[in-house]
Fold:
Amino acid sequence: MMISLKRVNAIFQKDFKDFSRNYAVSTVIFIPILLGAFYGRMGVVSIESHYMLINMSFSMVAAFVQCCLIAEEKEKNTLRGLMLSPATTADILGGKSLLTFIMTMVVVFFTAFLAEYKPANIAVIAVAVVLSSVFYIALGTLLGLYSKSVLEASVIVMPVIIVFSLGGFVTLVVEKYPILQAATYLPNLQLIELATMVEAGAGFADVFVELAIILGWVIAAIMLTVVIYRKRMVD
Structure:
């Protein structure tokens, strides 16, 4: 599937202008950064604490902002125009995701920096962070396609923020209710497991399973998003 960089750039610039005018959504990106600065001053050093902040960055920026951007297009009835334009599915979804991806990377970096998180193997963590961000952006796009307005998007994405930000507490529930063992394969928990192994000296070969699981979530989320998007084209 060919991607037109010119069309992607045009959609990116339009999203940037819309996002900068929506103060209710744009201010959300500062919450993880402020919490990172707060945790850094407290001297918090546990992996679980660091990745609660990083997963919060994913859910509040990648998922929430992306969901609101898609919902805003639907609310203004401009998404239909994009769908009927010569732009391909890859052009539209790529362009609509580019701004969110850049913001997510910036927020995760500054959140980790201010929280004084220094991974033992930056390359492994970087790959895991990029894969995770793509998953959350796809999830945000999917939820945005189901939302009719920005207000509805703000509500529908709340369970995602709660579950994926505080996912570390899921392990406590799993210990009490073993039937929920499947929840340990959620991408946020796999990211924490991967980071823990990296701090113990693990390399790419040692965390292959965790990366593969996260990649599986990414592929599934993208495929489902594309299917729902194309269904919306013929609604």
Observations:
- DSSP finds twelve helices and no strands in the chain.
- Residues 47-75 form the longest helix (29 residues).
- The mean pLDDT is 84.
- The two ends are 23 Å apart (CA to CA).
